[in-house]
Design a protein that fits this description.
Elements (H helix, E strand, L loop, with lengths): L2 H12 L7 H7 L20 E5 L3 H12 L4 H14 L20 E6 L5 E7 L5 H11 L4 E3 H10 L10 H11 L16 E6 L5 E7 L20 E4 L3 E7 L1 H6 L2 H10 L4 H13 L11 E7 L4 E5 L5 E6 L2 E6 L1 E2 L4
Parallel strand pairs: 3-4, 10-13
Antiparallel strand pairs: 1-5, 1-11, 2-3, 2-6, 5-6, 7-8, 8-9, 9-10, 11-12
Helix pairs in contact: 2-10, 3-4, 4-5, 9-10
This protein binds aspartic acid.
The site of aspartic acid has 15 residues, from strand 8.
Length: 335
């Protein structure tokens, strides 16, 4: 089934279903607990751990290998994301990512470490490993964000290889899309997608990263949530972390990942926090949520995780306690 049919089916599935009250009841359960920082419980053997959006077992396996060989959470999320960036079968990230409506592949990525340092790149062309460029921005410049040609020139100056990211497969998909006259960019809602990753290393430190080619067939210059710290990703090493996937415009409007972390700070579990953040989107007046997808994954300092989306085809890959598994997310709008 192609992405367009998925979109259509999303709408059809939504019709006639009562709004599930799981999100509403979550909001009703809000407590006004003061900030709680829970100590790490290594006795459960729950650290290190890696979680990522969608079905990306190779990426989480790579990240876990980094953690097990003594790497920190930052190294793990960078190297985990790089696996998907290099995979030309993944058409929503790195090389092979679907282009904008004019045929340009433009990448967005960000990374954040345990100390609150962050770096991001937006509208990056011709460089596969956007996440690594974001890390260089964080570590080797006084800035947090570089865009467009400046980001590309910076990457080249750091030794990154310039290459054509538009593969034959993505070019063909774009050409087929162009035949249709209506301008309707397609959000990535399949089970193979933009990657957001969170890791906790054996010291209990948290880092996260996010990398994407964004909304397929977007207007040239469009930037989503993925490189925006607080929207596509947020880490607070005292509390936890969150990454988003789905229609970036909706995530940006609610500053989704920051919201999830702040809700955890107030005492919510990662699951409750993700549910509440989704409720902020679907409960907006005139929300068009039946026609788009947003999903969050989150982890707290204890190594508890959560994931939640608007529709049912969202999943998280989790590598913890020796198991690397794809976990179907709970979702809004179920019967
Ligand atoms: N959030 C990304 C964006 O809006 C796309 C995705 O996660 O599928 O650019």
């Amino acid at each position: 089934m192609n992405r367009r049919k998925f979109i259509k089916n999303t709408s059809i599935t939504g019709i006639g279903l009562a709004l599930g009250n799981s999100v509403v009841s979550c909001a009703e359960n809000n407590s006004d607990k003061p900030t709680v920082t829970t100590p790490i419980d290594n006795s459960k053997g729950s650290l290190p751990l890696v979680i990522a959006t969608w079905h990306v077992k190779n990426a989480t396996a790579k990240a876990m290998k980094v953690l097990q060989s003594g790497g920190n959470a930052l190294d793990a999320v960078e190297q985990g994301c790089m696996v998907e960036e290099a995979d030309i079968k993944n058409s929503s990230v790195g090389k092979g990512g679907l282009p904008d409506r004019d045929g340009n592949v433009t990448l967005d990525a960000c990374i954040m470490d345990k100390d609150g340092n962050c770096g991001s790149v937006v509208f990056l062309k011709d460089i596969t490993h956007a996440v690594s460029v974001a890390r260089k921005v964080m570590e080797d410049t006084p800035h947090v964000m570089l865009a467009g040609e400046g980001a590309k020139q910076f990457a080249i100056s750091q030794g990154f290889k310039e290459e054509d990211l538009l593969t034959e497969g993505s070019k063909k998909a774009w050409e087929d899309w162009k035949v249709k006259s209506e301008y309707k960019p397609i959000i990535n809602i399949e089970n193979h997608d933009t990657i957001g990753m969170l890791a906790i290393d054996k010291n209990g430190d948290i880092a996260g990263a996010c990398t994407t080619s964004g909304l397929a067939y977007k207007m040239q210059g469009r930037v989503g949530d993925s490189p925006i710290i607080g929207s596509g990703l947020f880490i607070d090493n005292e509390i936890g972390g969150c990454v988003a996937t789905g229609l970036g415009e909706e995530v940006v409007k609610t500053v989704g990942s920051f919201l999830v972390v702040e809700l955890m700070r107030q005492g919510k579990t990662p699951q409750q926090a993700c549910e509440e953040a989704i409720s902020r989107i679907v409960n907006k007046p005139n929300s068009d949520y039946k026609n788009f997808q947003v999903g969050y994954i989150a982890v707290n300092k204890k190594g508890e995780t959560g994931s939640y989306s608007i529709h049912q085809w969202f999943s998280m890959t989790k590598f913890q306690d020796g198991k690397n598994e794809q976990i179907q997310s709970d979702y809004f709008n179920k019967t």
